[in-house]
């Protein structure tokens, strides 16, 4: 990956020996040899007592992305996450963390470097919120700044700002037990972000919440991220959550990473039967984006404006593009028809054709089709690049998880008419 990395794992093993000291080291050496000989986790624990938390993990997490680590219980997600801030010791390989213009090697960090990293570069949000019950909301959020000995005025300003951003300013003087679970986790989030870390570690932060609140907090996190651009490493065992939040997802099994990819890579091109099995249970509406399901317009490299025609649901559409790729006009069965860019703020007028961006989800496309009764146009940076009709939507709904949409039956590009 050419983008700047925030964290990089290079051939990382994390093994948990049953004892410390020399006995532990001997067993670790035996376990490492077994790992290299291709023995399973079960074999290794049986003969050496060593638990393989993570094995041969290679990851590059880009600055500013939400990177999700997903897998079943015991697959090694938390083990990997906790290695980023030094809570788990690396047995072999190395982890590099970027902090400002420095690169910190987490293999054997000096205590002072580790403290500085935890105080300034990496913050964590926990599943069970981990708020201090005797402190008010405000005093909980202040914690990280207190450890840094930040001045009172600066602390107040930062805490107020974050409490406001998570919608809890009116609750600043309350205690944790007076807040709902969702509100407590918002405090956890504000507490982690108030120190302005480079990397935010989130370990199943929404798992303890009921589905409605969970969904709301996911939306809030995505909306905060639009302005924060933090590097977030997010652990979950829920594929729908992973697909919704992740720019990229790593799937783990038995301590190993078995696939890393964008949500659509995971859904449409699962690397193994194991991943495909997961994907069969996901919700395609919130996983597939317009870019994958659309039928592309084949405008060529030097299109000088063009006319395209297509048929959807027995209606005939013609669209013309200007030389810069923007829409000039659209007709349905010979009659001009209005279009409306879908921006999430203003509702599409009845009967108008919606224009979604390539990043919009299948659910947005379905909603637009439902609303207008017409296909949906797909744009990228203002240029029309494709459209989604009934067949494209059906294909996406029925083929997702069988990995046939793009591999075995590619949708042909439409040539200019
Ligand atoms: N400190 C530790 N000492 C010994 N074994 C550990 C330790 N931490 C994790 N393990 C073991 O490592 C393996 C991976 O655990 P980990 O907590 O990373 O899994 P996980 O995918 O996060 O699971 P969960 O979703 O249940 O938290 C498990 O077998 C676990 O028992």
TrEMBL record:
Residue ranges annotated for the ABC transporter domain, each copy included: 39-279
Coiled coil: none
Protein's GO biological process: quaternary ammonium group transport
Short name of any one Pfam family annotated for the protein: ABC_tran
InterPro entries per record: AAA+_ATPase, ABC_osmolyte_uptake_ATP-bind, ABC_transporter-like_ATP-bd, ABC_transporter-like_CS, P-loop_NTPase
Keywords in alphabetical order: ATP-binding, Nucleotide-binding, Transport
Keyword Iron: no
GO molecular function ontology, one term from the record: ATP binding
PANTHER family, per database record: GLYCINE BETAINE/PROLINE BETAINE TRANSPORT SYSTEM ATP-BINDING PROTEIN PROV, GLYCINE BETAINE_PROLINE BETAINE TRANSPORT SYSTEM ATP-BINDING PROTEIN PROV
Protein name: Glycine betaine/L-proline ABC transporter, ATPase subunit
């Amino acid at each position: 990956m050419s983008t700047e990395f925030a964290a990089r794992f290079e051939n990382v093993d994390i093994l948990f020996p049953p004892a410390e000291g020399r006995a532990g080291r001997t067993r670790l050496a035996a376990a490492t040899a077994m790992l290299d000989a291709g023995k399973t986790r079960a074999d290794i624990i049986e003969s050496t007592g060593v638990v393989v938390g993570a094995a041969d993990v290679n990851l590059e997490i880009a600055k500013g992305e939400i990177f999700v680590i997903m897998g079943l219980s015991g697959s090694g997600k938390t083990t990997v996450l906790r290695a980023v801030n030094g809570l788990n010791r690396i047995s072999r390989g190395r982890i590099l963390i970027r902090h400002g213009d420095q690169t910190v090697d987490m293999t054997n960090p000096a205590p002072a470097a580790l403290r500085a990293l935890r105080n300034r570069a990496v913050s964590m949000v926990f599943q069970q919120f981990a708020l201090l019950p005797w402190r008010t909301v405000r005093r909980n959020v202040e914690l990280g700044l207190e450890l840094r000995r930040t001045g009172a005025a600066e602390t107040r300003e930062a805490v107020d700002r974050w409490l406001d951003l998570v919608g809890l300013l009116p609750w600043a003087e309350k205690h944790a037990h007076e807040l709902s679970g969702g509100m407590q986790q918002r405090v956890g989030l504000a507490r982690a972000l108030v120190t302005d870390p480079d990397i935010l570690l989130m370990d199943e932060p929404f798992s303890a919440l009921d589905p409605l609140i969970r969904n709301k907090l996911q939306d809030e996190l995505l909306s905060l991220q639009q302005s924060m651009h933090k590097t977030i490493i997010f652990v979950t065992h829920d594929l729908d959550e992973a697909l919704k939040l992740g720019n990229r997802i790593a799937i783990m099994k038995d301590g190993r990473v078995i696939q890393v990819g964008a949500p659509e890579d995971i859904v449409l091109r699962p690397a193994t039967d194991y991943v495909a099995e997961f994907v069969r249970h996901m919700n395609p509406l919130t996983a597939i984006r317009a870019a994958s399901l659309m039928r592309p317009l084949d405008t060529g490299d030097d299109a000088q404006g063009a006319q395209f025609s297509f048929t959807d649901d027995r209606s005939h559409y013609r669209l013309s593009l200007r030389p810069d790729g923007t829409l000039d006009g659209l007709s349905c069965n010979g009659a001009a028809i209005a279009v409306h860019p879908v921006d999430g703020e203003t509702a599409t007028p009845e009967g108008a054709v919606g224009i979604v961006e390539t990043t919009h989800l299948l659910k947005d496309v379905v909603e637009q089709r439902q609303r207008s009764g017409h296909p949906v146009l797909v744009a990228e940076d203002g240029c029309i690049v494709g459209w989604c009709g009934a067949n494209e939507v059906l294909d996406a709904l029925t083929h997702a998880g069988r990995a046939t949409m793009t591999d075995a039956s590619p949708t042909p590009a439409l040539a200019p008419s």
